[in-house]
Amino acid sequence: MSYYTAIILMSWIALGVLCISIHENYRISKKDKRMLYLTCVLIAVSALAEWLGERFSGDTSVPTWLLRMTKCADYTLTPIVGGAFIAQFHSNSIRVKLIKWVLVVNSVFQVTACFNNWMIIIDDENNYIHGPLYPIYMTFYLVITALIAIEFAVYGRHFRRQNRGSLYATMFLVFFGIFIQEIFGGEIRTAYISLTLGMTALYIHNAEFSQIVADDTIRTQEFQILVNQIQPHFMFNCLSVIRETYHENVENGDKAITQFAKYLRHNMDSLIGKQIVSFSEELEHVKGYVSLQKLRFGDELDVRYEFECTDFSLPTLTLQPIVENAITYGVRKQREHIGIVTVQTHDYKDRVEVVVNDNGPGFDYKDIKEDDKTSHIGITNVKERLRHACGGELIIDSVPGEGTTVTIIIPKNQGEVNR
Length: 419
Description:
This protein is an alpha+beta fold.
């Protein structure tokens, strides 16, 4: 077995393994699977045509017409493989349309030139050499290659920056293998092994990106579930405050209802459907909630704001539940002196911290009974959404009899989370 035969054989085996992987991938649609299978078959048949052309050349027992047909198939199918690569992108750009037309023209040209000496000349020893019109084929070849390279580059711009590297490396792998063969020729036959490896790398890239998209979708759904979970809890607490306000002062109760309606209209609608909001938006949400609570507690509640920075973003409904907890479990249970809640922001090199402190009775979360933990839904909820949305963290430091400090940590290296 020659070295070149071994390379072609390994390419076929690799393409077979790739087809098995494609078949087992349930995330790929039937239409996309058919296109992937077709591309693998085109590579295999093109490799076979080139291999047969090399095997038949110089073998006087092989009919001349058969050698011509194998070379015709080689020169026709090889550019079509490049078009099949681009077909994976589902693009309808002018470049793709131009590639299709060039492929059609080249195919007609090759079939027309098959049984004359335009493309190949066969001598008495049944060896073939390039014919006088071979440069026309190379022109088609170079045009198609350039258009494919541009389409690869444009396609890569649709991905996040961290997902482009493998795509461009795949393009380099394919072109490098083809150019090595075209430049050196002879026994250096690297085109089809590079096409096989490139097809495999492209499949892996797309499969991994599909998984990333699926994971993002799941995270979005989980995030929305968490938001939907916290909204009824928040509504219940607000209505409880309004009821208690009515019992103590009917006029303040009316004001509380008006404030609550205004709060819902201006704040809740702006947050629904968003994962990330600016700190300013979240702060407006908090201030609306605090003004509602002030109607209930009056001078018994003092909320203070101390900011080092405000130009950053955070997961929606992150700060409000923490302030809500501080008031509910701090101020409402604090009857000996004024309940003070302080909201601070701190700017560090690698993170932003939002700190909420209250001077309430404090608590030990580990000692809370399981049945009572539903009342602390805001804490668990915020932890999950911070983790999902930005890789953030929530730290609770509570001392019974002294108060509670909750720190929200937002990393600065989380791309779109921070401005």
